[in-house]
Amino acid sequence: MASLGIFLLLICVKYNVGYSFMDDSESLVWPPEYHIKAEKINLDAGIVETMEMWSSAAINRSRVDFYGGLVKKYYHWETEEENGYVYSLMPQSTEEYQNKITCGMQIIEDEEDIESSLPKIEYFKRIGNDELEGRKVAVWKYGRVFQEKRWQERILYTYQSDDYDIPVRFEAKNFLMRNGAMTAHIITNYYTYEPTVNDEDLDEGDTDDCEYMGKLGEDFHKDIKHLHPAKETDVNIAFHSYTKHHGKKYNSETEHEMRKAIFHENWEMIEHHNRQNFGYQLSLNQFADRTSDEMEMFTGLLPNPPELEATHPFHTDEEVRRFAEELPENFDLRMEGVISPVKNQAHCGSCWAFASTAAVEGAVARSNGGRIVDLSEQSLVDCAWGVGCMGCDGGWMASAFKYIVKHGLPVEQEYGSYLEQDGLCHTKNMTSTYTIKGFAKPTPHNPQALKVALYKYGPVAVSINFNKKMRYYGSGIFYDPDCNKGHTNHGVVVVGYGVRDGTDFWIIKNSHGATWGQAGYILISAKDNNCFVLSRPVYPIV
After folding, report:
1. How does pLDDT run across 291-334, given as a tens digit for each residue?
2. 348 catalytic, yes or no?
3. 285 belongs to a structural domain
């Protein structure tokens, strides 16, 4: 039997298909009406979420309560209108009020989106019997491989009542195929079942004050506020809206399902984080359907940086202390109008080129009275190999500055658009090239030195650990103790500093486009050199 299972798995890997077990003669049938209480346990994130569900196929309505009714969601389909509605009741707190129950309403255009809150059953096959919680149960299983990379396994335990299958436990596991590492493990236990539902349980009440949120799938940011990752139909709606919002296109239905599974994992992680008071929020941005391995191409610092000597010395510690006494409490180079627009390195490990170019653009603008020039990152990707940089495979900002001292940077309009890949170097005969005199390194691990450099000389390129949580940064002051357990992998530019509610922070410009973070920026806490901001600062001298 073991060898048969391995054989089936190999076939699935080869042909990118799913597989199930045992015969096709039996199939699951959920009750048309039910009231069920359940508890969902995310073993990786440590989340325990209580749920209560009501559903009636006779009147096309369902309801799910989370955390004892803290959040309530009502779904119903109007046959005559050929559309449906979802009403979401949840607490909101603002400057004017605290924990006010608010209502949002959205239109549903597909009846499948209000179907049962229980797991989809179409792929499950019965594999045998077992005993669970003192009850004899049927065991159902479903497994699927996604593009030879990820393995998704689902196990369902049920018992029979009036010819219907009643859930006892649902277990979901995701694995990486290359090493068998588990990436997600979620167990849902179903504790009570009642075969009838009162109409009032499915009545959302007075909805006159509900805010109309549009059609589901029309506005991702509105959709996600009123959807929940514990409901499978909400996951489908959210992912459809997400792909539409970010213009995502996948090569096959198999990849679509794989990306949805990754999106679901990240959504649950983000929801769990945002329920806690960490001082910053995460968001489902353009990276929410990507694996950690894939995210390596969105950074680009090489390991083991070369120890290049700065061409110009920085100030002594005594000079830094003296200058620091006159620094303003808050300083933002964007307010001087010398910071160029946020750019996007896309699927190329060229962060080093973008950070270097952004620093030079800011320094040049500061020196010429605020006139911003758009310099070419592609020229660094194509031409800076002689100083140890490797195009889309990575580089370092100090090395890039060494190249710019000798060769300069052409403007993008003349050199050509960014290609998102390595290209042919063609810097000869450029008419608009900007050079720098050299580069200097502020004293590492000294926040006052970095502030002095920013205030006196302009943007400073730094190396950070762009870790998993930072990928999904949305707002607030980012501080993650785990960020200092990794290593630097991403080049960015510090453009200012400040203090908010007693917390010091750095204002950092990223190269993942204006849709990431706060319009392309992140505020990183200055506490404990979080994410290594102070470890290797360097700035150009024009």
Report:
1. 887 888 889 999 888 889 999 999 999 999 999 999 999 999 99
2. no
3. no
